[in-house]
Amino acid sequence: MGARVSARFPTEEEINKLNKCIDNVRATIDSDKRDGKRRNCCVVTYGCQQNEADSEQIAGMAVEMGYNLTDFTDQADLIIVNTCAVREHAEKKVFSITGGYKHLKDANPELVIGICGCMVSQEKNAEKFKKSYPYVDFTFGTESLWKFPEILDVVINKKKRSFVLNSGDEVICERTPSSRKSTFTSWLSIMYGCNNFCTYCIVPYVRGRERSRKPEDILREAKQLVSDGYKEITLLGQNVNSYGKEYGVSFASLIKQIAELDGDFIIRFMSSHPKDMSDELIQVIADCPKIERHIHLPFQSGSTRVLKLMNRHYTREDYLALIHRIREKNPDISLSADVMVGFPGETEEDFEDTLNLIREVRFDMMFSFIYSPREGTPAAKEVQMSEKEKTDRYLRLLKVQEPIAEEMAQRFVGRTEKVLVEGRSKNNNEMFTGRTSGLKIVLFEGNDEMTGRFADIEITEAHAFALYGKVVRVY
After folding, report:
1. Which one of 49, 117, 205, 343 is most buried, by most CB atoms within 10 A?
2. Which fold, 12-164?
3. pTM for this one?
């Protein structure tokens, strides 16, 4: 358990079969146009950035097979729900929303509905969809994403339901296209799976063991993204810091090579595991201006005792020493973290250790979670804390972190920050929004022509969750 595996790549025979399935589906779609229009596909995504990247590949394959893309399920002939299994709430939401699709199927019997991703990588969930949701036509786990055309061919042309579980055949298919939602920000997956087996986490069980893409394939894709005009490239992996051990290439070396590509763009990355954060990477971030001035470094608990129960492989002291080394090389770097409250066995003393670590590190941003038991993980078998006690601790943690975030934000007032303009704010349509190199949200007055471009913004006001400013120049 936890051993690294070498990635398997599709054989020529597998690729030929895949291409034939793509042709089969496209032929069916083309021969059955309704009112001269192509069929529509809607991809609904829950979960992390890796799920979003996976959904772009699903959408890319759908387009390759002849579908148009739509954001509206009631306009779709094919609905695919890409699921998350990290927390129970996400699973309940998927079951609920899938139940709501029954009336769509009743109105359009030709509608095809599929569920994929982490949630249906677990046999119990796939079986539930098979038995309790007869209008769901197919499911497939994370490792079968590249076989989506083959699965859809069975459903559409052979009129059979298909339920494909993960089997341990963990393939990296480089030919999979992507239909990216943005024209200026992009996900770039560099590895898949996880070897850490934190006792609270389901990810290794649903995404398999760590395997890295070849560095030359990643560099080729990064170069193409820059050539296509993308201004932000986010490198993705469950633990990017352990990238490339199969090839003798470190993550620090990889990100440096990407940063050396010609063009004006910013590189972001997630997620980092503290036990694998190298001094080499810390130095590369300091040396390369194209790499974001932000590190997301989950600590989960400030108690060494709890960290051991979590199987995190570092101590409180290790984490604090790492923060010191990061700030020594990058004094003004923005730091964010994940922290969990209510882990089984967490005492009041353990929780105080967490609060004290937050006070000592002074994070710019923090993502805090109440522990949610996940069936199949070791921690789920332990005695659980009451929901009331977990909630009380969660609220106490927010009261510590929020004023720190407010204070940390004040250092930006009076500065001019380079911001990638993302468009109009969802919360205030009169304002535009973007993010600094340090991942801080900035709001400012602007115009639609700025979207997708860099702008220098003079920061005039700062709060815990957003900065405010005025445009100096756009380029």
Report:
1. 117
2. Rossmann fold (3.40.50)
3. 0.94
